Amino acid sequence: xxxxxxxxKSTVSAHGLWSFPREQAQLKTSVKEEDTEEWQKNATxxxxxxxxxxxxxxxxxxxxxxxxxxxxxxYPDLQVLYEDCRVVDVRAPYVPGFLAVREGPVLVEAVQRLxxxxxxxxxxxxxxxxxxxxxxRGFGVACHLGVLTGLPCVGVAKNLxxxxxxxxxxxxxxxxxxxxxxGDTFPLMGASGRVLGMALRSCDKSTKxxxxxxxxxxxxxxxxxxxxxxxxxxxxxxxxQADIRSREYLRKHPPSPAGTAHPGPERRDEGTEPKH
Length: 276
Known about the structure:
Radius of gyration: 17 Å
Mean pLDDT: 87
Strand order of the largest sheet: 3-2-1-4-5-8-7-6
Distance between the termini: 36 Å
């Protein structure tokens, strides 16, 4: 699938930010919000053996550079089978709703390298640090990565995106307080009446929810069950390991000529506030 759409990847970085919604609209027509794999259709995900996670850590004082990380973990025991970390140029500025412009190309390239170099370790699903259909135009970075790679993808965000009437208001805070244990959820229903994702208390020891949304080729119900099953901490282990390893790579391999390099304060969530 990836080779058929690979040309689209290069156009993403070439387009200006404000022409990008046209490409999003075109790619959005390919999104599938239902289960497409046999392993997704049983309670224990029998047949699922490899879960991928992607993340970027930014270099403080050197905004065009970041460490892109792709990991593949075994399932269900969540041991790292594969990792790819490398410093990349990130040319597009951060603009809410356009995370795929900034991060999509380098993440697709990481998947491409894996498919070419270690095809036996190809993930059966990718967990993405960002949103899927929970997005201003219904097509976040998890959708973008899913369509361009052809892989089932799930968006996992740490902050709520204020879209379609969703907000961190008193009702939302009360719903969070009602999440009593790991696995508890509530739907993120927009003013349009559509359920855009699910707030999930991912484990007992974390009281802050994460926000799960469909990226591609997976239903919301299956996506939430998968994410929760991958959580030893608040963040699902594939994304957590990608983040840990990208930060460690930058510590050991600081880019030049940036000087001392380490992950900067910018976040990848397309949340309610600009990156800071």
